[in-house]
Design a protein that fits this description.
The protein has 257 residues and is mainly α. It has one domain: Four Helix Bundle (Hemerythrin (Met), subunit A). The protein has a two-stranded antiparallel ribbon. Helix 4 runs parallel beside helix 6, helix 4 packs antiparallel against helix 7 and helix 5 packs parallel to helix 7. The longest helix has 27 residues. The radius of gyration is 25 Å and the shape is globular. It starts with a helix and ends with a helix. The relative contact order is 0.10.
C-alpha cells in the first residue's frame, strides 16, 4: 500500500471522527428549577419587605423578612437532598440574601424608627447593610474551607430575624428619641456581630431524611405552639438569644475556664 493511500485512509478516519463528535449529544446548559425557585421566593420576600417599608406597613415588612427566611432555609437543603447544587445557585442565593437580609432590614428599621436621628440613623443602617455584604462575601470565600459545623460571624438570616422581630414587636409604638437611639445601637451592633469571629452553631448537619425519636417531633410541635402565642416577641427573643449565644460563650470561656 502506497503512502498516498495511507494518507487518504487517515483523512477519511479523521473526517468520520469529526462527524461522530458533532453528532454526539452535548451536555445541556441550564439551571436547576426547584432550588432556584425557592431562592426566588426568598428574594421576593425581601423585595416585598422593602416595598412595605416604603409604604409604612412595617408589620407586613417584618413578616415578609421571616417568610424570606423560610424560603432561604429550604433552597439549600432541597439542593443538597436532590443533588442539584450549582455555582449559579450559590451566587444567586448570596445576591438574594443581600437583598432580603441585608438591604431590607436596614431600610425597614430606618424608616420605622431612625429617620429622626438624621445622619446618625443613616450611618447605623449603612453599618448593618455593609456588614451584611462583607459577611456574605467572607462566607463565599470560606465555603470550601469551613467544615460546615459552625458559622463564623452571626448568619445574615439570624441578623435579619433579630431586626425584623424587633420592628414587628415595637411597630405599634411611637418612636421616641430613646427608642430610636436603641434601634440605631441594635442594628449597628447586629451588623458588627455578622463580621465578628464568633462561632455560631450551624444546623446544616441535621439529616432531615433520617429517623428521630418521637420526643423530637413533639418538641417541634410544641415550639410552633409557643410561637403562635405571641409571634413577634417570641421570634425576637429567639433571635436575640441566638445572637448573644456566641459572645456569651466566649466570655464564659475566658473568665470561667
Amino acid at each position: 500500500m502506497s503512502n498516498s493511500e495511507n494518507s487518504e485512509k487517515i483523512i477519511e478516519i479523521d473526517s468520520f471522527s469529526e462527524i461522530k463528535a458533532s453528532e454526539s449529544p452535548r451536555p445541556r446548559k441550564g439551571i436547576y428549577l426547584l432550588p432556584n425557585l425557592l431562592t426566588t421566593g426568598a428574594l421576593f420576600g425581601g423585595f416585598y419587605a422593602v416595598l412595605s417599608g416604603f409604604s409604612g406597613n412595617y408589620e407586613m415588612a417584618a413578616i415578609a423578612i421571616f417568610v424570606a427566611m423560610v424560603f432561604d432555609g429550604l433552597d439549600g437543603r432541597v439542593a443538597r437532598m436532590t443533588n442539584t447544587q450549582s455555582d449559579f445557585g450559590v451566587q444567586y442565593d448570596s445576591l438574594s440574601d443581600m437583598v432580603s437580609f441585608g438591604i431590607a432590614p436596614a431600610i425597614v428599621v430606618y424608616g420605622w424608627g431612625m429617620t429622626s436621628l438624621g445622619k446618625v440613623g443613616i450611618a447605623a443602617a449603612f453599618v448593618y447593610a455593609s456588614c451584611a455584604a462583607l459577611r456574605l462575601a467572607r462566607f463565599n470565600v470560606q465555603s470550601g474551607i469551613n467544615s460546615g459545623k459552625f458559622f463564623i460571624g452571626l448568619p445574615s438570616p439570624a441578623a435579619a430575624a433579630l431586626i425584623a422581630g424587633f420592628v414587628w414587636s415595637a411597630q405599634s409604638l411611637q418612636p421616641s428619641f430613646l427608642l430610636s437611639s436603641f434601634s440605631a445601637f441594635l442594628i449597628a451592633l447586629t451588623g458588627l456581630l455578622m463580621v465578628s469571629n464568633f462561632k455560631y452553631p450551624s444546623f446544616k448537619q441535621i439529616d432531615l431524611r433520617g429517623k428521630v425519636p418521637f420526643v423530637v417531633i413533639l418538641s417541634i410541635v410544641m415550639s410552633f405552639v409557643v410561637i403562635t402565642i405571641d409571634p413577634p416577641r417570641i421570634l425576637f427573643i429567639l433571635a436575640l438569644s441566638f445572637a448573644l449565644y456566641a459572645p456569651a460563650k466566649f466570655v464564659w470561656s475566658k473568665f470561667y475556664n
